[in-house]
Design goal:
The chain has about 90 residues and is an all-alpha fold. It is built from 3 helices and no strands.
């Protein structure tokens, strides 16, 4: 179950980063922006919890948790930066 959830979160993060890097025009309403921010924070929390728990288990590779954590951090940072620019520029 954890592996499936981490793979799903990885796909969500990769789709968001791919859409941003390809220049897909993503203009969301306030509700969508808050929802995406909460999704990124949830991804960070879940992958952090799984990463901490992976140190206690033998034979478990933490690479998937670490990948989701780093991509979630990048997605949250990019999302916050873009929303900050739109707020400043009007």
């Amino acid at each position: 179950m954890k592996r499936f959830l981490l793979i799903l979160l990885l796909i969500v993060n990769l789709l968001y980063i791919a859409a941003v890097l390809t220049g897909y025009p993503m203009r969301f309403s306030f509700g969508w922006n808050v929802g995406l921010g909460l999704v990124w924070i949830g991804c960070l929390l879940l992958s952090g919890i799984f990463l901490i728990r992976s140190g206690r288990k033998s034979g478990y590779s933490p690479y998937l948790s670490l990948t989701v954590f780093s991509l979630s951090l990048a997605s949250l940072g990019w999302h916050a930066f873009i929303n900050y620019l739109f707020l400043i520029m009007g």
